[in-house]
Design brief:
Layout (H helix, E strand, L loop, with lengths): L1 H8 L17 H19 L10 H11 L3 H29 L7 H23 L4 H17 L4 H6 L7 H33 L7
Helix pairs in contact: 1-8, 2-4, 3-4, 4-5, 5-6, 5-8
Length: 206
């Protein structure tokens, strides 16, 4: 699968007609690029962020005010996340409008839509991490929606066992945001590109 992933990113031969700018705009590749930029900037942010209710916001202020390029780094991470969400949404919309989800690509459509859902959830978990007033209110609103969508304490209890912004809930959002969800996106992306080559069909290269 990894070999097919590399072949998709670096094809041996590309048809001349597919080098023209078309309605696809290489949205999938651009989304992957945004994800890689998002991962790289997030990795650098890990050196300064402190995942505790008392220190999270202060660590953000320290990064922006005392570290050279810190404000730029955080802005880069935030803008990369916005571009990633917009690009993956547009890519999904393009697949729907062109009917690229039809046989034999149904399985890859499910994978792609799962990537969109995980990307949105990853952005939601990251919104709490600065621990400012806006992030607390937004996360609390999200938890109310979760409680309405999934009645009962099970799902909410897993995400925020001690309340929004409390130590255990912040730690869970932090682990989800930097480990579990990015790894899920990376693994599903590999399968997604593998299936594109395996399904052939609209494959733009040899």
């Amino acid at each position: 699968m990894f070999k097919e992933f590399l072949k998709h990113i670096f094809p041996r031969v590309v048809r001349q007609g597919n080098l023209k700018i078309t309605y696809t705009f290489c949205l999938g590749g651009l989304a992957l690029t945004a994800f890689l930029l998002l991962s790289a900037s997030g990795l650098l942010l890990l050196f300064y962020y402190q995942p505790s209710p008392e220190r999270a916001f202060q660590s953000i202020l320290y990064l922006e005010e005392s570290i050279w390029g810190g404000r730029y780094l955080r802005s880069l991470h935030r803008l990369s996340s916005h571009f990633f969400l917009v690009l993956i949404f547009l890519h999904t919309l393009r697949v729907i409008l062109t009917g690229a989800y039809r046989k034999p690509r149904e399985f890859n459509w499910v994978i792609g839509f799962s990537l969109l859902g995980i990307a949105i959830f990853d952005a939601y978990t990251g919104y709490l991490l600065p621990m400012d007033q806006l992030s607390l209110w937004a996360t609390q609103t999200g938890m109310e929606l979760v409680g309405t969508t999934f009645p009962g304490p099970q799902v909410r209890g897993i995400l925020v066992p001690d309340g929004v912004g409390e130590p255990m809930s912040l730690l869970r959002f932090y682990i989800l945001h930097i480990v579990l969800l990015p790894l899920s996106i990376l693994c599903l992306s590999g399968i997604h590109f593998y299936r594109i080559r395996k399904d052939r069909g609209l494959l733009p290269y040899l």
